[in-house]
Design a protein that fits this description.
Length: 381
Amino acid sequence: MAERILRPESQAAQALGRVDDATGAIIPPIHPATTFERDPDLAYSRGRAYARADNPTYAAAADTLTALEGGCRTLLFSSGMAAATAIFLALSPGDHVVVPRVMYWGLRAWLTGFATRWGLTVDLVDMADPAALEAALRPGRTRLVWLESPANPTWDVADIAAVAALTHRAGARLAVDSTVATPVLTRPLELGADLVMHSATKYLNGHSDVIAGTVTTARADEFWERVTAVQVQNGAILGPFEAWLLQRGMRTLFPRVRWQCDTALILAHRLAGHPRVAAVLYPGLPDFPGHALAARQMRGGFGGMLSIRVAGGAPAAVAVAARVGLWTRATSLGGVESLIEHRASVEGPASPVPDDLLRLSVGLEAAEDLWADLEAALEAR
């Protein structure tokens, strides 16, 4: 009988169906070993030598994500920043890269600071404008295009397939930060991306108890070997306990993300009609500029992240965040608890984020409770 191909939901829930050979345990064990025994002839017939390069617990989580993304291989990193920067560090000084104007602020700061001093040429463009991207590309010199969709914290959605076509025509690679969409909603490799990156601290883990990053590749080519070398030689690896927790989190990824999408959509519609909300930024709203693209590119939901611009400017926005009770004022996203924060004060004076914007990460609480808390915070004087 031919082996049945399982849907991603089943692959995630069963962690690819692994059962421990030694004990029959249905939960993969943690392997904390840092080193592995050589054979008498000094070979490593069991395939592992040292944990900086490999460990069975890393492999279990990496294999699960590879299957969910429809990729070839996955690397686990010690943080999302370690994962993202490894891709850029696999380039050579003098290479040209194109990145979005709106993106995770920590990576933007690294690119415009360290990466430019190290020797990369960096152009920031509006990725929703194909003409702007095409004008920024330098065939023969552009080596990488970086895309974030939806983009943090305005949640603009870029056309991954269109960006991939322009990127490849210029002879470059496309890497997509898909932290917010997750493989539940978007699989960038299917749309033409070469690499997909996640801050696995967020939705993949989903419990706010692991710092981790991942990169999955469409093919194991020479550039992938360079990314792997950056990880191993720089020691930017994930510990086995963190890898085990990441694997545990991915087993509930699909129901968590779908619940968060449903709640975010409810809140977005209600906030859009509130007199003290100047604008709601959420791809699921019909009047959002990228709604039609999001409906085509994102499967089964529009994400658990939204932002609001509060009428009355920055003081009003900060006051709303100060008055919530159920929402937690904290940085991060994708966990089971709902978070709210004033992004401009987090990102600092160089931030392109409007100072009246509050970013909301929807958790697993009841939608009615989250709405009641927000409504009270908005309406209080």
